[in-house]
Structures are given as C-alpha cells and as structure tokens.
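Thread: quick sanity check before group meeting

JM: Hey all, I'm pulling together slides for Thursday and realized we never actually wrote out the predicted structure for the chain we discussed last week. Dropping the sequence here so it's in one place. If anyone has concerns about the input, flag it before I start.
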Amino acid sequence: MTDRTHARRRGRVSARRTIENELRRLGFARIAGVDEVGRGSLAGPVVAAARARLYEEILTACVSWSVGVGDIEEIDRLNIHHASLVAMRAAVTGLLPLPDFALVDAFRIPDLFIPQRGIVGGDRRCAGVAAASIVAKVFRDRLMIKLHRVDPRYGFDRHKGYGTADHLTALARYGYSPAHRRSFRPAALFDTID
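JM (edit): ok, ran it. Output follows.
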C-alpha cells in the first residue's frame, strides 16, 4: 500500500507539492508557504511563519524562512484574526529573497503586495504551508517554554497556553498573568451556576 493510499484510508491527505508545481509551470520560481499557530490559545502570542523554496532546491532545502509574531497587546487591540493576518504579512515580507507567490493556509493576507492564494486546509494539502506550520509551531512552543520559566504557576511548558483543564484551574487560582490575552475569556472560568 502506498503512503497516499494509506493516508486516504485514514481520512486525511498528506501535503504534496502539486499546487507549488502548478504555480511553477506558470512562471513563479520562489513560492512561500504561510501558516500561523496559537489562534485558540488563552495566553501567549500568535505566530506566523513563512518558508520559501527555490525551484532548483525544492527537494533539498529551504531557501529562507521568516517568523511574524502578533503579541498579546496586538491580539487584544485588533482581535485574534486581524493579529494573525498582520503576523502572516510580516512573515512573508521578512523573507529574503522575497517570494514571487504566497500560498496561505485558509486566508488571503490583506495588503500583501505579491500574488497569493488562500488554501482551506493548506497545511494538509500543500507542502510549503505544512512546512510553515511546523516552523511556526516549534517557534511558538519555545516562546511558551520561556514564558513558563518566567512564571511557572500556569504550566505553559505543558499546554502552551491552550485552555486545558490544568490551565483553567491555574487561572481560577492565580488570575490572569501578563502573558494572558484579556480578549479571551473562557466561559468555564467565569460562569457560575446560581
């Protein structure tokens, strides 16, 4: 059984280079994959990464990568969606050399000056977006471990700021820390039964 057949039987499709190859046939040489992590977290930043590859090196190595970070204040001021888009734009524009085209997980990035395509499920369908997703996750996880070292009461090293039972228990006991998003208020923490 091939990997592709096995993946289909499990109900998911593995990321391929089909979309990137289609764009190369149209003349785009440097294609960036863009994704973000941390949208649903109660604490910490939202992080977007972009990874661009040159045509000749597609199978061997990443030509460049860049990370954009939407900090807690920006998330609370703009909302998580807009902060994510700002972080994604920063990740793409931080690439050197600049890409010819950007493939973005799910959304189009406003005010991006290069051609782009939003791909729903891009991290599962597109190799460049999948690579960007991994870079963003590892980068954000490391940031959350640093936040844990500053304030270990919340266990950021374990749940990375997401709303787990342990995290909600720590929030109920200690309240919000400077690392917490004020615009994210889990109902389980604040709603009481009268």
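AS: nice. Residues 1-10, 54-60 have pLDDT under 50 and may be disordered. Strands lie at 31-37, 46-53, 64-70, 101-105, 116-119.
JM: adding both to the slides.
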